[in-house]
Amino acid sequence: MRLLVIGAGRMAANHAKAFKDIEGVELVGAVDPDPANLAAYVEAFGVPRTFTKLEDALDWGQFDAVDNITPDAVHHPTTLAALAAGKHVLCEKPLAPNHALAMEMVVAAQAAGKINMVNLTYRNVAELHKARDITASGAIGTVKHVEASYLQHWVALRDFGDPGPWLWRLSTGHGSNGTLGDIGIHIIDFTTFAIGQPITSMNCRLQTFSKVPGDRIGEYVLDANDSFIISAEFGNGAIGTIHSSRWASGHSNDQRLRVYGEKGGVELSHGHWGTLLRVCIGADVATSTWREVSAPPVRTNYQRFTDAVHSGVQEDPDFRHAAELQRVLDLALVAGRDRQEHQIPS
Ligand SMILES: NC(=O)c1ccc[n+]([C@@H]2O[C@H](COP(=O)([O-])OP(=O)(O)OC[C@H]3O[C@@H](n4cnc5c(N)ncnc54)[C@H](O)[C@@H]3O)[C@@H](O)[C@H]2O)c1
Questions:
Q1: What is the pLDDT of residues 280-304, one digit of tens each?
Q2: Ligand 1 mean position to 258 CA, how many Å?
Q3: Residue 344 covered by a domain
Q4: Whether pLDDT at 224 is above 90
Q5: d(CA 275, CA 153)
Q6: 182 lines ligand 1 (CB under 6 A)
Q7: How many distinct structural domains can be found in the chain?
Q8: Tell me, what's the pLDDT at 112?
């Protein structure tokens, strides 16, 4: 698979490192309007061709697939252009700024008949798949109650960058849906994947906290949400809270999920320090004894995308799944504004 990277910023380094270790992948080019970012990327990863405009790369055309790692609002136009040129697409999350634009990407990918995947990174965590297997096996019985969080601390550290990868995340005018769009999508996927149930209704509180005098840095108005709390009902009637913040001092990037069923519980924590999956089931319920569980390795999204392009068989998570998540995020923004309970349209 000859791969073109679109967007040679911070996350693109992770993608290059991951694809370098996958057999049958050649990183043949990179596109970025910022020459300094392009130069740094070439220096780090030895990419043979570079372009400051996607159109020039598409005119050249000597690649099979694109890896779209642009800022959130740029995913939609660049992905549509790549699909129209007949390229497979791995796109970063969130797929688009809203469900309608995400669905345009779903339709375009289907019409083009190309592999389409979205990089929901935590699908690479083996213990998440094991947690899903445990809940699906019935070992904890019907799930009743869920508690999930995704905590980061970079706003508390005042680590905004100028403009860098962080400032656009704070500004709705630059296409960000704040913490909800940036990491809310991860923890909603983490939760619903683990319990095998979609969110069917929700309330949401969103908060944007003042960060600098005037809440503006240059052209960036710092108006995107920093924290959210969703109270949700799931498909089987279970309820739960899902919350997230960029002000969580002491947590650089930590996810936690606790799932309780009528026969036991599963708890999963993941962060830079590692991953811990533990269960309390069977006779252990009576004594509140938790036991650590190991998980066999899983293929990463990068490997799955490569396999899908080679085999021609679509893999998960695909654009349609990302669009469904976007529907939940859109509704959370509405619920955050009107403080009402909202049903997810079926
Ligand atoms: N899956 C994950 O865990 C994860 C983690 C971090 C970031 N991300 C996602 O990755 C994407 C990029 O984030 P980042 O932190 O690397 O941001 P970044 O700002 O460091 O990098 C974005 C790059 O895209 C370039 N760019 C802007 N417009 C472009 C265009 N039209 N064509 C080509 N390049 C363009 C910018 O110049 C910059 O170099 C975002 O969508 C973000 O949500 C995902």
A1: 999 999 999 999 999 999 999 999 9
A2: 31
A3: no
A4: yes
A5: 19
A6: yes
A7: 2
A8: 98
**In which order are the strands placed within the sheet that holds 199-207?**
291-292, 274-281, 264-271, 253-261, 143-152, 239-245, 227-234, 199-207, 342-343
Structural domain span for residue 48: 2-121
Q: Is the pLDDT of residue 110 over 90?
A: yes
Please provide the size of the chain in residues.
346
Structure tokens at 74: 């740029």
Question: Which CATH number characterizes residue 35's domain?
Answer: 3.40.50.720
Q: Is the model's pLDDT at 125 over the cut of 80?
A: yes
- For residue 314, what pLDDT is reported? 98
Contacts of 235 (CB under 8 A, 6+ apart): 197, 198, 200
Instruction: Sort strands 65-68 and 88-92 into parallel, antiparallel or unpaired.
Output: parallel
Beta-strand ranges (E) seen in 282-338 are: 291-292
What distance in Å separates the CA atoms of residue 83 and residue 105, rounded to the nearest whole number? 9
56 band by pLDDT with thresholds 50, 70 and 90: very high
Is 262 found in the same domain as 135?
Answer: yes
What is the whole-number distance in angstroms between the Cα of residue 10 and the centre of ligand 1?
A: 7
Phi, psi of 158 (to 5 degrees): 60, 35
Evaluate if residue 164 carries a pLDDT over 80.
no
Same domain, 134 and 269: yes
Substitution site in 4, 6, 11, 78 for ligand 1 pocket (most atoms within 8 Å of beta carbon): 11
Looking from the CA of residue 31, the nearest atom of ligand 1 is: 33
**325 falls within a domain:** no
Nearest CA to ligand 1 atom 3: 121
My answer on whether 130 and 270 are in the same domain is yes
The sign of the CA dihedral 83, 192, 99, 54 is: negative
Place of tokens 């990419």: 47
Q: Is the pLDDT of residue 165 over 90?
A: no
